[in-house]
Design goal:
Blueprint lengths: L1 H5 L12 H9 L4 E11 L2 E10 L3 E10 L2 E13 L4 E10 L2 E10 L7 E18 L2 E20 L4 E16 L10 E13 L2 E2 L4 E13 L9 E13 L5 E12 L7 E3 L13 E3 L1 E14 L4 E16 L2 E16 L6 E8 L6 E8 L3
């Protein structure tokens, strides 16, 4: 694992001043709290000596919150170094007054130590989906579905990976009292693909550099699907160091859905680019969001860093012949814990021009 990260093999030429760059490659694995790389001259070459101190990689995360009158509670278990091979496993269970969600996700960045990679998900949900116009709910329906996807792929470069494979969804849609019934969901079977360019360097409390992810899935009647749809999603983020030890980030998200405007639209709200809106409350068949964030660390105890953040989200969403444009300024707090593999969590407050007053959203993940 460390040898793959170094990308240096016996006989390769090594720059005597490359220790810092090699250390960053190992640190980017996110599973070590300390990394030391020494380049020592030897007969006819250089010996690369690496010493590491592992961080805690199994992280239990309680999930508790209340948004727009809906209470939720649950638990996520995240393992970033399964079997000591940097394989990732996440188990999540959430109960809400609007429904329940259970999921298992697995990522293997090097199957059998090769360049082959693998991603798989199993998701079960029973929840009410709502579209809102400000404070008014305009559409509501209950979605029950079980979804599975397995996507093998190849790590083309140390930072770029691509995957593709089958997915299947068994779904039921049911009307909520007082609202028009949704279209029947049925069975979806098709092909899904994704790519990820992980160009960020892992820092003490934020990740510096570019990140790009894109996903596509298409339900195909030729494979047994009861209806056809295509969904595409892309996300780009760039974070750079700013004044003193501050961090500045720009991100852009684009989505396109071809299918039923109720069943297949993307839900926005409560996430980067659409904070200030009800979580999942803005549906879009075609849309784009953008976000600019500026973080300032104000407390650095021994266990991590606490940063204040100001941001502006904005976007445009097209759905069922209507267009929604919005701007959402806000502020938040991030807590970055040093010695765990999923170090960042926080809360944001924002007010959107298309929303209804202040809205709260929660963040969990990596810095940047």
């Amino acid at each position: 694992m460390i040898e793959r990260a170094l990308d240096v093999r016996p006989g390769d030429a090594v720059d005597p001043d490359a220790a810092a760059a090699l250390r960053q490659r190992v640190y980017n694995l996110r599973i070590f709290r300390e990394v030391d790389v020494q380049l020592r001259p030897a007969d006819g070459g250089i010996v690369v000596a690496v010493a590491v101190e592992e961080r805690w990689t199994l992280t239990p995360i309680p999930i508790v919150g209340a948004v727009d009158g809906a209470f939720q509670a649950g638990l996520a278990l995240l393992e970033q170094n399964l079997l000591g091979e940097r394989k990732e496993l996440a188990l999540v269970g959430v109960y809400s007054t609007r429904g329940q969600t259970a999921m298992a996700l697995y990522r293997d960045p090097a199957v059998g130590g090769s360049r082959a990679i693998l991603a798989s998900e199993l998701i079960a949900e029973n929840k009410v989906r709502q579209r809102a116009d400000g404070a008014r709910v305009t559409h509501a329906w209950r979605d029950r579905h079980v979804e599975a996807s397995v996507r093998p792929g190849v790590q083309w470069t140390p930072r770029l990976g691509v995957r593709a494979g089958p997915f299947a969804v068994l779904a039921e849609s049911e009307a909520e009292p007082g609202f028009a019934p949704p279209p029947p969901s049925g069975r979806a079977v098709g092909v899904a693909a994704d790519l990820e360019y992980a160009g960020q360097d892992y820092r003490e409390w934020f990740d510096s550099g570019p990140l790009l992810t894109a996903r596509l899935r298409s339900s195909l009647p030729a494979l047994g699907a009861e209806r056809a749809f295509t969904q595409a999603w892309s996300f780009a983020l760039w974070t750079v160091p700013a004044f003193r030890d501050h961090a500045f980030s720009l991100s852009v998200t684009g989505v396109v859905a071809q299918g039923d405007p109720v069943l297949d639209a993307f839900p926005l709200g409560g996430r980067r680019g659409s904070r200030g809106l009800r979580e999942g409350g803005l549906w879009t068949e075609r849309g784009a969001t953008a976000s600019a964030e500026y973080q300032v660390p104000f407390w650095r105890p021994g266990w991590g860093t606490v940063a204040a953040m100001a941001f502006v989200d904005g976007g445009v969403a097209y759905w069922a012949g209507s267009t929604t444009r919005y701007v959402a300024p806000g502020a938040g707090v991030r807590v970055y814990v040093r010695n765990v593999a999923v170090p960042a969590f926080g809360v944001d407050m924002a007010s959107s021009s298309a929303g209804a007053g202040l809205a709260m959203s929660f963040f969990l993940g990596f810095g940047g």
